[in-house]
Amino acid sequence: MEEQQPSTSAPTTGCDRSTGPDLRNGLQNDLRNDLRNDPWDDLMDQLLDDPSEEVRRAATLRTRDTAALWRAAEDVPAVRAAAAANPHAPADLLAELADDHDGDVRAAVVRNPACPPGLRHRVAAAHAQAPSPCTPKH
């Protein structure tokens, strides 16, 4: 009995398009040009302006667009926290968000790996909890 070799291409039953390594050759020139122009930026712009807070929050966490992060800093707390957590957030934006009235936003600034150490210490010192009046003195 002859040993069968595993197939290295996708099944093409009923399909007349190229598959596998020949796929790129089968793409229409205009589609290849569109893909080369990086449609991700257009999609991300739409997601950053989505009516859904959750969609804007998720997009804000992933964007590399500094202007979009500054716009997000004016949004609802969850989106501001996403801007504060974004590792591409510039230091001046993090400094502004460090003074946010929302504790989750300030916490995101401190946890951001891009947060300058001096800013991290300033936020921690400014918002350290005062001892509770119920705590007994020793």
Describe the overall structure.
It is a single chain. This protein is an all-alpha fold and 138 residues long. It has a domain of 89 residues. It is built from nine helices and no strands. α8 runs antiparallel to α9. The longest helix is centred in the middle third of the chain and has 10 residues. The radius of gyration is 25 Å and the shape is elongated. The termini are far apart.
Shape: elongated
Mean pLDDT, nearest integer? 82
Largest sheet: none
List the secondary-structure elements in sequence, H or E. Answer: HHHHHHHHH
Question: Rg to the nearest angstrom?
Answer: 25 Å
- How many helical elements? 9
Amount of helix: 40-55%
Q: Terminal Cα separation, in Å?
A: 87 Å
Which range does the strand content fall in? under 5%
Structural class: mainly alpha
Which blocks of ≥5 consecutive residues have pLDDT under 50? none
How many strand segments? Answer: 0
